[in-house]
Amino acid sequence: MATFNYIVKDSAGQRIEGALKAASVESALDNLKRKGLTVISVKEARSDILGAKQSIVDQVAASLYRMRTRVPLKIVVFFTRQISTMFSAGLTIEKSVSNLLHEEKNPRFRKVLARVANDIKKGLALSEALAKHPGVFNNLFVALVHAGEISGSLHIVLEQLADYLETVAETRRKVISAMSYPAFVLVFMIGIIALLLLFVIPQFTEIYDKFGANLPGPTRVLVGVSQLISQNFITVFFLSVLGLSVLWVLSLTERGGYIFDTLKLQIPIMGMLVKNSIMNRFAKTFGILIGAGVPVLESIDLVQKVVGNKVVERGLNLVKSLVKDGFSISVAMKKSLVFPPTLIQLVSTGEETGEMDKLLNKAAYFYEKQVDSIVDRLTSLIEPLLIVSIGSVIAVIIITVYLPVFQLGMALRQGL
Q1: For residue range 18-68, what is the model confidence (pLDDT) as tens digits?
Q2: Which CATH superfamily is domain 67-168 in?
Q3: Taking the model in full, what pTM does it have?
Q4: Minimal CA–CA distance to 83: which of 200, 21, 164, 161?
Q5: Does residue 156 sit in helix, strand or coil?
């Protein structure tokens, strides 16, 4: 006999989760219905959706694979919306995927759909076929499709998924919009500094060498840096790329990722933007999982994979452990010390009313508005700050280069 996890509601509308042993899914459903319970979902306890913990080598390989196979999010959203509509209209999943395959223009996604369609023809479920393409369909996507297949509400889950992915895409666009301008200015500033160090300063150095000038300390330091970079440009470039690669690999490790993500949350203003974005993603994801009938512990596992921050992931580990020990979700979240009071209060209310998914959606909307507010403040403040910063850096370099000229002029005036 197999073990099945179930989610039901009693006569009072209270959500109950548990496990029972039965010969099949149908037998488990009959057992629960005989007790007068309203069944939300029943699924076999053993699941390969989440996957085992990966080594650092596996994580690097998986990251590179996702980069190679990734397709734009808007294409995935359109696919999800279309397959939901076709399935709701009475077409089979196999026919729906085949129709979308013939209409798909993106070559990379077309190959993915061809493989998915072929796997479905072989008898695999949609979730199993999608799980073979982690660069396109993440763990959350696969798990929700799997939950929809079991509960018999796949078209509803796919529609919710499309709405969710559109929200994620919009939030991502806002965050990228807030960070793109400072990133551009930073790259521009680095380019200007590189041009000054590689081409401008060496010319002044030759002039000073001809006159045998005794350079002041700041100018000697700048000239030394310029010579180091210009004479060893390939080595410096290689070491820079190597250093960035090492930092990226370290960010994939548990400890390194935790340190980097902690620093992200500590950056003034930007840290608040990142935190609100994470809370929006957490609330939206957790809400749609709970609403789709995914068990709480499995939902937490899946949310850990999509929040994108090691600090929150570690907090969710504690939440999961405390929930297993019998604590309510809101109390466990409070003890983890990573979730804001507003979100905890909404989750607590959701537990009391049995409408956690709806209140989590409200929380997601609240944090989405917070992100909008921070983005508006950033766009109004960051432009003048960056202009002042780049001007200051270039001014310091130019003044340092011309410092010997200034000192020579002062010496001549004193001599006269």
Answers
A1: 777 777 777 778 888 888 888 776 766 544 444 445 566 666 666 666 667
A2: Type II secretion system (T2SS), domain F (1.20.81.30)
A3: 0.64
A4: 161
A5: helix
